Each structure stands twice: as structure tokens, then as C-alpha cells.
Amino acid sequence: MVYLYETARVDYSDLASGSVLHSAPGMPAFPVRLATEIFQRALALRGGADPAVVWDPCCGSGYLLTVLALLHRPRVKTLLASDLSEDVLGTARANLNLLTETGLRDRAAELADRAERFGKPGYALAAEAAERLARRLAASGGPVPHHVLRPADVFDPAQLAAAIDGDEPDIVLTDPPYDEQTSWQGSHQDKNLPAMMAALGEVLPPHTVVAVAVRGRRVPAGAGVRPRQSLRIGTRAVAFFAAADLTVAGRRSSPR
Is domain 101-142 classified as CATH 1.10.287.540? Predict the structure, then answer.
């Protein structure tokens, strides 16, 4: 299926992981063009014009959420980020803190100082990119409210509910581990996507749009559960559900 929203190729080099945005070992960046296509499709499925509360329960470095906020600031109300690893959440905090009043300016100054001290042109170019992103963020709405939540196992509904603590996400958008550079962690035995989505279904409002991206031909959602929409581009497949669908998924796919 072709792109519906991101029909033109755009230079996203300012958003390269490890340049302005922070990177972490084993935390690969998500393709920016595909991320923004998924987000806009999820907004269309949700309906309405209000900015969205967006949650990534497998946030990793926070790259996906940070990129979406920088590119779609007027359509983002709040970002919620959670993951099982506290170490990973530290990187997510560093990235999401770039979305504050001084975050990108301070990052630009840091990179410019590195360029001067180490004489590396790459740092100077990254500093210029940070300044451009800062201007873009200011012009499109300014700082983005965000919460890096407590560590939460995505297979445990109680931990997920405690993490969001009463917030009601409009959109869940996540790129869960797929056993290449990343893999599932924690103590739960049902480590598969249907189990993850069933847990999300237990804690989300029924209308929440859940978009899940994987490497492969399709997103395994559980027996009898059909996505509201699906997308396949390159090596990735994406499926869109309403949270109400995922409660049914858990009932049908849970082991007995």
C-alpha cells in the first residue's frame, strides 16, 4: 500500500538518531517518513481535530515520540513514554526534554562547544540542525508536555495502568521488540504481540487507536481479530486497532 499522507520525499537528516537526538545501544531509530504516515493515519481513524495524547509503551530511546512531536507539534497535546528498562527511560528523558523551552537551544550550545573543543565538523552541523529544530518547534506551538513514566512491563495490565495513572491516551503508537537489535525483557512467559495488545486493551479507553509496527508481512494480532486498517511498506507491517478490539484479542488468544 502506498503512502496516503507523506507522499513527498522530505529531507529528515536533522532528525538523525545520534546527531541532535540522543541514541542508545540496541535502540534502533524508526524510519521518520513511516512514523509520520502512521501517526496521521491514526489521527484520521480517531477523528476530530483536537490534539492527541500519544503513548508509546515500548518507547526505547523515545526517538519515535520525539520525532512525531517535532514534526506535528500542533496535533500533539501530551506525550507519554514507558518501557521496562530504567536505563532506556533515561535516554527517553533526554530526548523528550529536547521538547522543552530551552532543550534544543541547550543541545545546540552543547554540540557547538564539542565542535570547538574537538574540531569535528559533524558537531557543528548537528548544532545547526538543533537550532533549526528549535525554530521549528517555537513556530509550531512551543514546548510539548510530556511524561516519562515509571518502568512498566507491557505484558502486565496492572503495571501499565499504574504507569499511565489515569491518563487516557487517544493514540498508542509503538514499535515493539522484534529480536534483531532488541528483544522482550521481563518475567512474563506470554511474550508475543497478541499478549501485549491484550494487556493494552485492558487499560485503554475503548476508542483509543492502537498502531503497532513490526518487521514482517503482517502484525500477528490473535485469532479472529482484524485490524481497522493495515499498511505494509518495505520490511515493515503496521496494523491499526481500536482498544476495544484488543480486549477480545486477549480473550481469544490467552493460553488455557
Answer: yes
